[in-house]
Amino acid sequence: MGAALLAVTVDSFPLKTPFVIARGAKTEARVVAVTLTDGRVTGHGECTPYARYGETVESVLLAIGKASDTPGCLESRETLASVLPPGAARNALDCAFWDLEAKMAGVSAAMQAGYASLSAVETCFTLSLDTPDAMADAARAAVHHNLLKLKLGGEGDAARMAAVREARPDARLVADANEAWTPEMLGPLLEAAAAARFELIEQPLPADADGALEGFARSVPVCADESAHIASDIPRVAARYDAVNIKLDKAGGLTEALAMLNAARRADLKVMTGSMVASSLAVAPAFLLAQDADWVDLDGPLLLAEDRDPPAIFENGLLYPPPARLWG
């Protein structure tokens, strides 16, 4: 097809409560949304710029502007990938292309990606970093969610994990340290995680210090997040991690995320499908990856006070296939 016509907006969604991780807190999800149209149908995509990777709303808008000004860039996902590096800007455009292509062909994006049907998946419900007592209270309040994901912060994490396990003896538990642990903390905190029956610890060490994981005997599997962005990262992290968190904003869209999924399976890594705090439009394309994931962390829309219309469908901890009017 010829170059698609592009429109871009910056949208803000207030959160129900502040979202707190080791790197700070936020009270809204500020995202960049794009539409691509061939004049007949329109594709939609969304991304969340992430400061950890040097991204801002302004830098993403500049990158999208560069893409639109580059001849041929907005003709296909392939030409897009030749111009924009992996990251939030490419994610929004790549997902919009998937949606546009599906509508042009009259075939769902899931079918185009090789999924004959989609099934509901159990998603994590995230507990913000807080005191052990406050996190235990939040775990008890999340009565309709059986899979909980704790945000950790280093000092005090053993008490946080133990408190949540005591509060929810029935729940499946995973945790995300967001690079907050040191190599000296690693052994004792993994033992505490094992004692509290955690299934997974995500990104315990800073990405530039995760070499300490290589050859380290551990009682709980560890998952790469900040250490792995694209498919070519998989051979390196496979020597250090047991799993990888695939996020569209890191990979630069569904196209690269699917390649990353295939690379992870070839490397015998387990897979988590995650996303930033964003609207249902960001979660919808990631739902395809969730079909093949060992853990799903796509609860971002549940943290919002307002969402897209139509929103993603959540019920008792399950996420259902996205409405066609939303994406795909």
Automatic annotation (TrEMBL):
<keyword id="KW-0413">Isomerase</keyword>
<feature type="domain" description="Mandelate racemase/muconate lactonizing enzyme C-terminal">
    <location>
        <begin position="132"/>
        <end position="223"/>
    </location>
</feature>
<feature type="binding site">
    <location>
        <position position="176"/>
    </location>
    <ligand>
        <name>Mg(2+)</name>
    </ligand>
</feature>
<dbReference type="InterPro" id="IPR029065">
    <property type="entry name" value="Enolase_C-like"/>
</dbReference>
<dbReference type="InterPro" id="IPR029017">
    <property type="entry name" value="Enolase-like_N"/>
</dbReference>
<feature type="active site" description="Proton acceptor; specific for (R)-substrate epimerization">
    <location>
        <position position="151"/>
    </location>
</feature>
<feature type="binding site">
    <location>
        <position position="202"/>
    </location>
    <ligand>
        <name>Mg(2+)</name>
    </ligand>
</feature>
<protein>
    <recommendedName>
        <fullName>Dipeptide epimerase</fullName>
        <ecNumber>5.1.1.-</ecNumber>
    </recommendedName>
</protein>
<keyword id="KW-0460">Magnesium</keyword>
<keyword id="KW-0479">Metal-binding</keyword>
<feature type="binding site">
    <location>
        <position position="225"/>
    </location>
    <ligand>
        <name>Mg(2+)</name>
    </ligand>
</feature>
<dbReference type="InterPro" id="IPR034593">
    <property type="entry name" value="DgoD-like"/>
</dbReference>
<dbReference type="GO" id="GO:0016855">
    <property type="term" value="F:racemase and epimerase activity, acting on amino acids and derivatives"/>
</dbReference>
<feature type="active site" description="Proton acceptor; specific for (S)-substrate epimerization">
    <location>
        <position position="247"/>
    </location>
</feature>
<dbReference type="InterPro" id="IPR034603">
    <property type="entry name" value="Dipeptide_epimerase"/>
</dbReference>
<dbReference type="GO" id="GO:0046872">
    <property type="term" value="F:metal ion binding"/>
</dbReference>
<dbReference type="Pfam" id="PF13378">
    <property type="entry name" value="MR_MLE_C"/>
</dbReference>
<dbReference type="InterPro" id="IPR013342">
    <property type="entry name" value="Mandelate_racemase_C"/>
</dbReference>
<comment type="similarity">
    <text>Belongs to the mandelate racemase/muconate lactonizing enzyme family.</text>
</comment>
<dbReference type="InterPro" id="IPR036849">
    <property type="entry name" value="Enolase-like_C_sf"/>
</dbReference>
<dbReference type="Pfam" id="PF02746">
    <property type="entry name" value="MR_MLE_N"/>
</dbReference>
<dbReference type="InterPro" id="IPR013341">
    <property type="entry name" value="Mandelate_racemase_N_dom"/>
</dbReference>
